[in-house]
Amino acid sequence: MKDQEIKTCPTAVPAASSDPSGSPAPPTAPEGRDTAAPCAAASQGEGAASHAAPGCDVSEELSRQLEDILNTYCVDAGQEGVADSEETDKGPPEAARNGESKPVVPEVNGVKEELRGAVETRTINDTDKDHKRVQDKKKAKGLGKEITLLMQTLNTLSTPEEKLAALCKKYAELLEEHRTSQKQMRILQKKQTQLIQEKDQLRNEHSKAILARSKLESLCRELQRHNRTLKEEGVQRAREEEEKRKEVTSHFQVTLNDIQTQMEQHNERNTKLRQENVELADRLKKLIEQYELREEHIDKVFKHKDLQQQLGDAKLQQAQEMLKEVEERHQREKDFLLKEAVESQRMCELMKQQETHLKQQLALYTEKFEEFQNTLSKSNEVFTTFKQEMEKMTKKIKKLEKETTMYRSRWESSNKALLVMAEEKTLRDKEQEALQAKIQKLEKLCRALQTERNDLNKKVQGLSGPPAVSPETTPDDCMTCPAPTSSENVELNSSGVYEQNAPQVTAPSSLPAAATE
């Protein structure tokens, strides 16, 4: 019961603080000795609780009334806006179509303003009638002038057929004018209905605003009375609370000692967690060393295969050397990036653990702070010291969060670089396979050309006598065939792949012609 009284009491004491002008002040948090004293007094006896309960009930009732007023008038305004939009979509009502406006009867303090609506409707009807009379007079004058002009034009004509034609033309013109005037009249009628609806809406809103104002004024008066009574009760409780302050301070010192013991326990836990983090870091280092050894072994195997496959021409050998240099450079960059990634991961894990630990400490401190908030508010000096410690902890947390974000960004950049290196390695492997395939094709071409040369030499020997050059060639001549010259269009792509255009073989078609000569 005492805890409930202490929780409900701070809501009643701030309501007593009002401006000297008489306007009700908004409820604020309890500050200082005057606001803290009534809460402790309420926890000591049933009499103080019985005084505090009616104040809380009155404030709740007043707030409930204010919410009801706001909900009713705000909801009514929104519903009326929706209804008006629906009515405008459907079309004007019967009274608006006939040019008559429905009088809206607002209510002020439960009384309907019927007389005002009747007077306004009468004035509107009178003005409409006067306007119509003036328009009728103007039309009569205009018609008289038009009739005289028409008679003059008819007198000028000689035959009745011409007169009929002139009358028909005039009739057609008048019909067109009549149609245009009817269209304009319909547009003006629509505008008139819209204006009448807007006027009715504004009247309704005005009446509702007057009602809300009257109710809010009555609420303000009740709040002022309630604030005065609460102020008097707060002064009395503050006087009683000053006597019981010493007991609360002693209890507060005991709680502070408990907090210090808990802080020491948390420090011991922190040391244990640090040792565990160091052990985990050692294990990670061992795993990284094993991974590096495996990569070195794989690199050695790749180099051995590269040495076995270096059987091309001089330019192909140069290209392979360039590829080796690029691979070594990428390997160095890869090792460097791996080391950076490992360090960033280790630092990130350490910072995450520190962050979780600090968050746990913060949660514990906040829980303790909420438990002893009522008692801490009564001693200003201890409150300020604890607040300074909290600010320091928040600054540390912000610094740690910044460092974690920095290490995360480094880690992500290193991972991206590793992915790029792997992709480049796969591309280089594909390029190497393509070069090997091209070398094999060139070897086959060379052998085919040598066989054709041998056949042609044999034919020449049969036709023209002893051979000038020995036609026989060994199979090893394919490996010792001359390197392709610049005319064979050896081109290097931007990706590092060499493309060799084979020379066009025209010897078989030219040699038989020479033999016949």
TrEMBL record:
Residues 88-100, 110-133 have a biased composition (Basic and acidic residues). Residues 483-509 have a biased composition (Polar residues). Keywords: Coiled coil. Transmembrane segments: none annotated. One of its GO terms (molecular function) is syntaxin binding. Residues 171-336 form a coiled coil. It comes from the Eukaryota. Residues 1-58, 77-138, 458-517 are annotated as: Disordered. Belongs to the taxilin family. This is Alpha-taxilin. It comes from Eleutherodactylus coqui.
